[in-house]
Fold:
Amino acid sequence: MQTIDTLIHARWVLPIEPANTVLEHHTVAIEGGRILALLPTSEAKTTFQAKQNFELNEHAVMPGLVNSHTHAAMSLLRGLADDLPLMTWLEEHIWPVEGQWVDENFVQDGTELAIAEMLRGGTTCFNDMYFFPEVTAHSAVECGMRAVVGLLMIDFPSAWGSGPEAYLQKGLAIHQQYRNSPLIHTAFAPHSPYTVSNEPLERLQVLAAELELPIHMHIHESAQEVSDSLKQSGLRPLERLDQLGLLGPRLAAVHMTQLIESEIELLAARNVSVIHCPESNMKLASGFCPVHKLMQAGVNVAVGTDGAASNNDLDLLGEMRTASLLAKGVAGDATALTAHQSLQMATLNGARAVGLEQEIGSLLPGKAADLIAIDLSTLESQPLYDVASLLAYATGRHQVQEVWVNGKHLLRQGELVTLDSEKVKRQAKQWRGKIAP
Structure:
């Protein structure tokens, strides 16, 4: 009998690959932080002897959720300026507060708050875009969380840098520092077409190809963004980005609420991923991403929460449910986004959008052991006819009981292992006292 690190015996396992699969009474075997095997529990108990055994007899085990777009540190701005249009919210409230308060300490404390919330909700990887990404990366490593850290690019100065050249050099240094990290991955993160001019975008496109890095960018978030672009250049933002060579399989385009048919065809032809943030888009009245049309065209669509300043939570299970229901409503088709497709959007599609589909997003042997266990014994989960349907439409983040990243236990019986909850709450309250005394 082979001795290994961990055996997780579950009532149900949803591996995501193959699609539409629910396995009953199966076990995930983990060795060295990776999935060694996925096999029937009866077979696992005669094949392996583990240092740690978990009997999850009323739980569904699945890959950890991938939050494909967020601004983690902005969790400290949760609820600061609600019920406002996007540009009013940004220009008159968020940007001024950031200009006054954002520094390394803000980003560290805000990221810890975000990671704590995400882990408690089953998210094991987040794709981030914010100032001081080196602090975000350090915080994620300290917590044992997987992160894709955005190497921010904007035209104007900030607390993090004096302009595009400074951002680029700092970003490249961060990439170099973490290029062999098991947990931290990097992506170029030009903020948006309206905050980054052509020359920096052209440089990022060349470097992304050379370094094989994703590009993570807000695009077509609002009707105003599109109309302003047409006035300034005579081009819609996607058209301009295509002329600059940015549309391709490395690009993860966030929001995409303003799309015409030819642009959907273009995204499919260029193999661009779209990251859908339905709750933020609805709250800011930015519009609706045409998820069903994109998926019908063959576009990879993932899901993200956006930041807690505009959502106002980092609950990816809730976001997944909203995404599914909204897709049906927008398409006028109850079959537009199935339960299994919703689960894939929040796992494998997210991994694909950030270039990590070979590493995470499904429970296949050889992949990193990023997985979660959700308790389905609760009153709210009864009766249980279909596990995928229950997870997609009727499961809350409070039911997430166990979380592993790279085989390391980060949430045990609903309690954080690597973070001090009371300290995190105390830090958040201190920032509230500074920002809005």
The longest helix spans residues 104-120.
